[in-house]
Design brief:
By secondary structure, the chain is α/β, with parallel strands linked by helices. The chain has 15 helices and ten strands. The strands form two sheets. It has a five-stranded mixed β-sheet. α2 crosses α11.
């Protein structure tokens, strides 16, 4: 996650200009008119977005009275900027965006988190004594710019990593494959699969399993939307949750077809591997989601993660993080039967 500061003056000015949002229909009119809702993802279409595509492909959003549009992200897009400009109704992000909203005093908020475990990993070669995350202390690791301001401060504080371990990561795995002493960053469902194709069975260190409590694949929207269109936000959250249960536990074929329509480079075998890994590691349906349903968040976890990141120097101390998120729309066991 890259840190992109938001200007309060720009934000408030754009919000003041307003977004042409559909008015909430009376319950009796929902069958006649659907509410438009645009959700912006954080990267190109992939299995990690599958529940949203499943809700779209199988008509769940329409059943909830929503004309939903899932817009694919990419390297040249900043979802927060699109939200600021009023071009989308909600975006996919993570806990750090919530902290930035409070730091910069801008009126956006996190309303749900699909992933209970951040898929961020560090990857090592087998047989090099790097079988645990603490074993990487003092050893060279390829880290990108975004990681240096998010999980790297946590690694320094938690395990005693030092900045002189960092080597630049350019999203090219050739240096890692050529040097067995190197470790590198990655996402559970991406880089490890590519490394296996090169003939190396990687040692995977899932940061979430070592206490990195970042909420990932969140639904973030404006405070104004929450206040004025709460029913629409609730319906979008509920439909998305149902979509995720259907994608992980049912037939994902219709959703995968839409994913591949938006991103033709997403091969079927890669989608299948990603789904299997999300299930194996409990990326979506684990932790609080087991009791409260997919999308779950808690005050305790937000506080714990904030305290850890503030202590590590990754975010400012003294923030009122209750302004970063709301539990209004989640923890209702939607889709659990």
């Amino acid at each position: 996650m890259t840190r992109k500061p938001l200007s309060r003056r720009t934000t408030l000015g754009l919000l003041g200009a307003g977004t042409a949002l559909a008015a909430l229909p009376a319950p009796a009119l929902r069958a006649q008119a659907l509410d438009k809702f645009v959700y912006q993802t954080n990267w190109r279409a992939q299995a990690e977005h599958g529940g949203f595509y499943h809700a779209l492909a199988t008509g769940i959003y329409r059943r909830y009275g929503i004309d939903a549009e899932i817009r694919m992200g990419g390297p040249q897009q900043d979802p927060n900027a699109l939200l600021v400009a009023g071009r989308v109704d909600a975006i996919m992000s993570n806990s750090f965006s919530g902290f930035r909203y409070v730091e910069e005093n801008v009126p956006f908020i996190v309303v749900a988190s699909v992933m209970q475990k951040d898929p961020q990993v560090l990857i090592s070669h087998p047989g090099m004594g790097n079988d645990t995350l603490p074993a990487l202390r003092g050893k060279p690791i390829l880290i990108g710019a975004g990681g240096r301001t998010s999980y790297w401060p946590w690694l320094r504080a938690r395990f005693g990593f030092t900045d002189d371990q960092i080597r630049p990561y350019t999203f090219n795995m050739a240096p890692f494959l050529a040097d067995k002493t190197l470790s590198q960053q990655g996402f559970l469902t991406s880089e490890p699969n590519e490394i296996r194709k090169a003939g190396v069975e990687p040692v995977i260190h899932l940061l979430a399993e070592y206490g990195f409590e970042n909420y990932q694949t969140t639904i973030n929207t404006s405070v104004r939307m929450v206040r004025e269109k709460a029913d629409l936000v609730q319906r979008f959250v509920n439909a998305s949750i149902e979509g995720w249960y259907g994608y992980l536990n049912g037939d994902p074929a219709a959703a995968n077809a839409l994913i591949q329509r938006d991103n033709p480079d997403m091969a079927s075998d890669k989608i299948a591997q990603s789904i299997a890994q999300m299930k194996q590691y409990g990326i979506v349906d684990s932790g609080d989601a087991k009791q409260l349903g997919i999308g779950a968040m808690t005050d305790a976890r937000w506080k714990s993660f904030y305290d850890a990141m503030a202590a590590a120097g990754a975010v400012r101390t003294g923030l009122d993080i209750s302004r970063a998120y709301t539990l209004q729309f989640i923890n209702k066991r939607v889709g659990m039967g």
